[in-house]
Amino acid sequence: MTIAIVGAGLGGLALARVLHVNGIDAFVYEREPSRGARGQGGMLDIHSGQQALREAGLIDEFYAIARGEGQDMRLLEPDGTLLLQEDTPEGAPLERPEVDRADLRNLLLDSLPEDVVRWGHAFAYADHDLLHFADGSSATYDLLVGADGANSRVRALLTDARPVHIGQNVVELCISDIDRTYPDLAAMVGRGNYWALGNGQSLAAQRNGDGRVRIGLNFYNTAEDWFATSGIPFDDPAAARMRLIDLFAGWDPRFTALIAACDDTIVPRSITALPVGLTWPSAPDVTLLGDAAHLMPPVGEGANMALLDGALLGLALAAHPDDFPAAVKEYEREMFERTSAAGRQSAHVQEILTSPDASQKLLAFFQPG
């Protein structure tokens, strides 16, 4: 029987890998023309997702590319007051290591036979047991797995739910080769994550394995059309940086120095999420995983849940190779419970971030009691 996975993200590839390990064939259909067609974002904090990599037989390879020092964290007030500094000792357990998303994706891709991922296949719709792609081609399936992210097209086969804006807008920036270009700022950010938050805003700087520092400027309790009214001229990077510095007026000059040092890659992102606890009646031939199933605020759970979804669905299918409907029901029952809990936790962290005393509440979250 044919398993078709739409989307070559972490969850879809984890599913394909666990199926491969268990001797089950599957095809992954990805709309991008090649693995390097688009940037894959920054670093990921992989914790519970390590279970999925063990099931995939890739945990040692994961540890080889993971950055233990990425667990370091510094938390500050807008006035520059340092609230928390956690430095990871040499040789500490890799409980929540950071890993470059592109490196992790490449690890999964390289673990699969070459013909498993079908690049350049943009899913259009499904008709009974036939997949139709934007280029007019088609493919048969017995089980269709939607691993096609936040704007999933497969999701509509199971539920009318759609992601909604959660009142957060982010501007992403980057400083390349920061140790050479801005050594003082590099020392300030450190080896892992550097957060300053308050006044309904935050600056999150994250060290990447390739020498970059990615910076996210978060604006909370803002409308979906906030970018249109913010006065940020995204078509003029130099002017955009100046406007962003204005929006952080009154913050410690070290933070605005980070913004000023960024290159011309300035990307606006509106943050959306699916309802916490979303479920649907089980269908015998279609299911979802990852952001297609449970898009959450970006606070560290999404990639882990996607990896677990892929691995656990793969194990359920391996346990019921002749009964896909039973495997899907078993997987969805566990997935709904697990991701609902993760969704509630993510919503709680999001509530902290949007509160007036966000830095103090986050400090209490990281250091309970």
From TrEMBL:
It catalyses: a tetracycline + NADPH + O2 + H(+) = an 11a-hydroxytetracycline + NADP(+) + H2O. Consists of an N-terminal FAD-binding domain with a Rossman fold and a C-terminal substrate-binding domain. Monomer. NADPH binds at residue 38. Belongs to the aromatic-ring hydroxylase family. TetX subfamily. The keyword ATP-binding does not apply. InterPro entries: FAD-bd (IPR002938), FAD/NAD-bd_sf (IPR036188), TetX_monooxygenase (IPR043683). It is an enzyme of class 1 (oxidoreductase). Transmembrane segments: none annotated. This is Flavin-dependent monooxygenase. It comes from the Bacteria. Residues 2-66, 286-321 form the FAD-binding domain. Keywords: Cytoplasm, FAD, Flavoprotein, Monooxygenase, NADP, Nucleotide-binding, Oxidoreductase. It is found in: Cytoplasm. FAD binds at residues 45, 101, 291. PANTHER family: FAD DEPENDENT OXIDOREDUCTASE DOMAIN-CONTAINING PROTEIN, MONOOXYGENASE ASQM-RELATED. Its cofactor is FAD. Its main location: cytoplasm. The keyword Cytoplasm applies.
